[in-house]
Amino acid sequence: MQSKLFHFSESNNIEEFVPRPVQTPSKRPDGLEWLNGPLVWAIDSWHQPMYLFPRDCPRILLWRTDQTSAIDEERYFAKSEARMIAYVENKWLSRVKSAVLYRYELPRSSFNELHDAGMWVSEKAVIPTSQEKIINMAEKLEQENLELRAFDSLTPLKAAWKTSLHVSGIRLHNAVDWTD
After folding, report:
1. Is the CB of residue 45 less than 8 Å from the CB of residue 3?
2. What distance in Å separates the CA atoms of residue 70 and residue 173, rounded to the nearest whole number?
3. What is the pTM of this model?
4. Of all helices (H) and strands (E), which one includes residue 167?
5. pLDDT tens-digit profile of 64-87?
6. 90 closest CA partner among 174, 178, 155, 153
7. Beta bridge partners of residue 104, listed in sequence order
8. Angstrom distance (rounded) from CA 97 to CA 23
9. Is 158 left (phi over 0), alpha (psi -120 to 50) or beta?
10. Which residues contact 81 (CB under 8 A, 6 or more apart)?
11. Which secondary structure element, helix H or strand E, spans residue 61, and what is its range?
12. How confident is the model over 115-157, as pLDDT tens digits?
């Protein structure tokens, strides 16, 4: 069975997703600069918990891989059975828990998989096939088996990128004291 594709928004009235450049261009490897250009972005079902947050919320998400070492698992997951752990700043915690999001399901036909943390892109406009309002974020995160952790700063988690875990950072330019 193919995974569904979704786009999350705080807006409830999107009738068509039109390709647009990213708001904050990322440093891309040679040949992938086009990912900063006009695209419609989607996320697959398994990775959707990465986007169960207010859009501008800086966050770091971790999950185990086949290569995850016992040391890394113990350090970052301890005794947690969660499939993902999301770290946010304390100042964002109440906004995360009270967020109202809209999950749009998108047809797969024009999307191409990036083979990177469940991300898909389309260079064509896309009309959503459905929309779901998500109002109890704490409950939704729990349903997705995501453990939420909050700290004053995400900066100490930079070392996670040097582990055997998968690490995704989103909107880190909005984090306190974050530098590349």
Report:
1. yes
2. 31
3. 0.89
4. strand 166-170
5. 999 999 999 999 998 899 999 999
6. 153
7. 7, 131
8. 25
9. alpha
10. 145
11. strand 59-63
12. 788 889 898 999 999 999 999 888 999 999 999 999 999 999 9
